[in-house]
UniProtKB/TrEMBL annotation:
Its main location: membrane. The chain crosses the membrane at residues 12-29, 76-95, 102-119, 131-151. This is DoxX subfamily. It comes from Prolixibacter bellariivorans. Keywords: Membrane, Transmembrane, Transmembrane helix.
Amino acid sequence: MLNPNQKLSNAQLAALLILRVVIGWHFLYEGITKLLNPNWTSVGYLMDSKGFFSGFYHSLAASPKLLPVIDALNEWGLVLIGVALIMGLFTHWAIYGGMLLLAMYYFSHPPFIGLTYALPSEGSYLFIDKVVIEFFAMWVLSLFPTGKIIGFDRLLVKTK
């Protein structure tokens, strides 16, 4: 975490703020597109899982009682994380929630040699894909309290 006595330059703060907002937009957009599509479900994605944890993801998809909960958590999690990051509200929770969601996506569809998926990827990856890059970008954001500097978290902080 940033030392309270250490100041960010305007350029550093602007870069972190832009990073927070664009990641927030990505989450928000992904969530809204799922919410607006009445036929969307995570079942295909979960059943397409490969790798070490595929059994876990397949069991989620096979549960008729759990699948609607998983779908709702995914849709609304993406939307709420996105809104929170854009607004700088509950930023700490949004960042770690987003990192958890990204980790779940990564372990469902790891970019390992020999694994192919029904949906094409956006490039040829080996271990590092856009999910990992966004995960580490969020880790960087977790180290700087941008919501407390520029965001609604500022209203939640007790002033001395």
